[in-house]
Amino acid sequence: MLRKLGFIFAAFGIAIAGASIASSASAQEGARVSDPGLYKEFGEKAGLTKIVDDFMVNLLNDPRTKASFENADQKHVKAMLVEQFCEILQGPCSYKGAKMKPIHSNLGINREQFNALVEQLQFAMDKNKVPFAAQNKLLAVLAPMHRDIITQ
Ligand code: HEM
Asked: Do 38 and 89 touch, CB atoms closer than 8 A?
């Protein structure tokens, strides 16, 4: 229970400690973690790839997110998530995918689905033994994106 509260807090609380905002057109698009050691804690590119593979399996098994992802180009979305997380974690990547607002604008995503995605990401990070504090630092950067993703 405490664990669950932890991620909800991380996702929607105002705890953005650990996140820094690089100057860019949109604060959410340019945000990075401030700790340069975090990329290693996620196992670098290989670790991120495993986490995102597990994450997508989870999303396809969760009734709250299944419908959104089963018709998507899962391989492409996974590649983009690895690139995006790598950049956020200060890894040697540059995210070249779509901006969060336009890519999600027609999907009718609600708060329950957003929470479900955060929860499934947390399960994937747990499975891959990412330390809890490191998990929360990534979630703190992702959480403000709800403004661009939730449309109903
Ligand atoms: C912090 C939360 C989220 C992040 C960081 C995120 C990130 C991304 C990224 C990087 C892409 C690929 C962009 C591209 O193709 O260039 C994407 C696509 C997509 N996302 Fe999200 N997403 C989030 C939340 C959600 C939620 C809650 C849902 C639905 C339950 C969702 C459904 C989708 C779908 C269906 C696509 C594919 C859209 C298409 O190809 O037209 N996302 N997302």
From this structure: yes
Q: Which residue from 26, 83, 89, 117 has its CB within 8 A of the most atoms of ligand 1, so it is best to mutate?
A: 117
Q: What is the dihedral of CA 13, 22, 43, 142, to 10 degrees?
A: 30
14: CATH: 1.10.490.10
- Has residue 34 been placed in a domain? no
- pTM score of the predicted model: 0.89
Helix (H) or strand (E) segment spanning residue 21? strand 19-21
Atom of ligand 1 nearest to the CA of 143: 1
Say if 28 falls within a structural domain: no
pLDDT per residue over 10-52, tens digit each?
A: 444 433 334 444 433 344 577 899 898 999 999 999 999 999 9
